[in-house]
Amino acid sequence: MNAANESAEIVGHERVVRDAAARGLDVRIVERPPAGSLGEAAQLMGIEPGDIVKTLVVKRHDGDYLFALIPGGRKISWAKLRSLVGVNKLSLPHESLALEATGYARGTITPLGSTTDWPVFADSSLVGREVAMGAGEHGYSAFVQADDLIRAFDATVADVSDPE
Description:
Layout: H1 3-6, H2 12-22, E1 28-31, H3 38-45, E2 53-60, E3 65-71, E4 74-76, H4 78-85, E5 90-91, H5 95-102, E6 120-123, E7 130-134, E8 140-145, H6 146-153, E9 156-158, E10 161-163
Parallel strand pairs: 3-6, 6-9
Antiparallel strand pairs: 1-8, 2-3, 2-5, 4-10, 7-8
């Protein structure tokens, strides 16, 4: 059940919290100041850069989307993800299309509370870790156990990244 669809008035990190609760997922929302880099963001939150997860909205050739969860210090491997999805073309949409597809601005995107439940692909290096990710609005991060997040979305887990 996508909690974001239940109440369009709910915005930002409240959408994340409600969707997490509906999925039986424990999430901790932390307010944080802006950061100029991955390293600075990790330092501000007292975690390692690899514990910060980028949620990338990826456009499929058919016009649908998927989420790719990629740890900090790594980048999406287009070849690996295309092979896994079984397509020849994937791309990052313009930020206006990502907003339309999820209801979240770039830099705040998370599958939690997204206006559409797109398939989730999680990099295998996330397994067994607590991670911080977008929380639906700037100035907040959502901390969650990656294994629980993977289960909540029935995510596909695979090696879909390369070192930056």
